Amino acid sequence: MAEAMIEFQSVTKQYQSGQPAVDELSMSIDQGSITVFVGPSGCGKTTSLRMINRMVEPTSGTITVGGKDVITVPAAELRRSMGYVMQSSGLMPHRSVLDNIATVPRLNGVSKADARKRAEELLDVVGLASGLGKRYPSQLSGGQQQRVGVARALAADPPVLLMDEPFSAVDPVVRDELQQELLRLQRDLAKTIVFVTHDIDEATVLGDKVAVFAVGGKLAQYATPEEILRAPANEFVASFVGRDRGFRHLAFTAADGVEVHPVPTVTRDGGAVERPDAADGWRLVVDADARPLGWEGPGPDSDLIPGGSLFRPGDTLRRALDSALSSPSGLGVAVDEAGRVSGVVKAAEVLAVIESARQVRQGAL
Ligand SMILES: Nc1ncnc2c1ncn2[C@@H]1O[C@H](COP(=O)(O)OP(=O)(O)OP(=O)(O)O)[C@@H](O)[C@H]1O
Ligand SMILES: [Mg+2]
Description:
CATH class of the largest domain: Alpha Beta
Bound molecules: adenosine-5'-triphosphate, magnesium ion
Strand content: 15-25%
Helix content: 25-40%
């Protein structure tokens, strides 16, 4: 069992009369984990997050961090002891990127030279070229600004990182990159991260645990992403999680049991590399290193048709099925660690594996 780092005990926040923003919230957040607060707009996610570092004070109830009641720690000191990343990167526009990152260490009394050195290291940690350090925030893209925001939050090496919709202002591709980078960073850093989003997909990708909030600041479910998709606690969670949840749940099961079949491949200059008679006349076109380029249809003189998603070693059932469904031939292309074609998977067989996994689960209940 992981140790609790942050605990909410019957915490209520009432800004004005009427419905509270957060209502009797009790939950325990594990040390070294990513906990995601998710829910519709106005359900109290930001309020709950900000009560952790006393940017907002609770009306009643207690919050402890590392066993210590936050009320006993001066608010300014508490705030500096935790990293905070928000939706707009919140960078100071008239300071360089490096100076922005060095802000909190400087406030903590670190020398200018050391703070700068640390800021330079952090640029690299968050995947930014060192040349960007001298620029001003407005001279960076949205995704780069968010990376600087993350670097700044990490600068004082705080054990706790609070992130309020940090990736919601960037496009989906950059967002995906930032999510993957956060997961990579977390593997090294093992911070206690509380992450707010209203996107259930982001929540299930990032969270070790997900807290689903309902309007009125009530905690509707607090569980692993797998469990929230498989067994929503009530109608509200089920509808919030959405109609693709059955499909998305496949992202939590490895596709080890799916058979990979041999496939006929050709190189673009027409040289047949290998032609077992499968694939209904479809031929997989590969480069000289056997990496997939696309498909040739059954007829003669067929053009190269772009392939679908690839199925890689260690991938989940969701990826296996997607590779087959997104492929023009209906066959999902499997590749090895080096990206070379290892064969194809078939949608019907992936579904059969899914069904037998379901039966095993039913039997186990
Ligand atoms: N400073 C404030 N004064 C009064 N009411 C507030 C204040 N801050 C938030 N609220 C109200 O408290 C409720 C919860 O707000 P909060 O910002 O915590 O929601 P949220 O879940 O973060 O929403 P969003 O997804 O839109 O960011 C809302 O009804 C909001 O209007
Ligand atoms: Mg909010």
